[in-house]
Amino acid sequence: MKPEEALFGYLASMAEWESKCRDLYRERKAGRIEVSESMRAAMAIYNPIFEKYCSISKAVKRESLSFSSPPQYDVSSETIIAVNIIGIAVVEIRTNHATHDKQFVYRLTLENGEWRLFEKFVIGSAGQLMRDEL
Predict the structure, then answer these.
(1) Residue 88 belongs to a domain with what CATH number?
(2) Which long-range contacts (CB under 8 A, 24 or more apart) does 99-106 make?
(3) Most buried among 63, 69, 98, 109, using CB within 10 Å?
């Protein structure tokens, strides 16, 4: 699998996760489930995505959860604008997110023959990289 395919697989999975988080939020607001139950359910969906697409050795796992509406993770809104090879086993992919009018940088590393994400940045107005959660 190419790094771009791994990135878009991750984005598609995270888009589904955000959709399910919105459903859980509605259920919680309606009083049908408790906060702790919705958090457990959201983490139960998130953890396998992290394990499948993110570097076990380099990525920092989320301690808290947040989702946005419209979704931050949306394959149809994300366009690759640059792919840079950094060394033998690291690729940097710069994307433009049309819905949120932001650019992101994702860094992937080759681990056991698979491309895995380990860093994500938002590009600031002055072009600086600001660390973001995967």
Answers:
(1) 3.10.450
(2) 99/70, 99/71, 99/74, 100/68, 100/70, 100/72, 104/78, 104/132, 105/129, 106/7
(3) 109
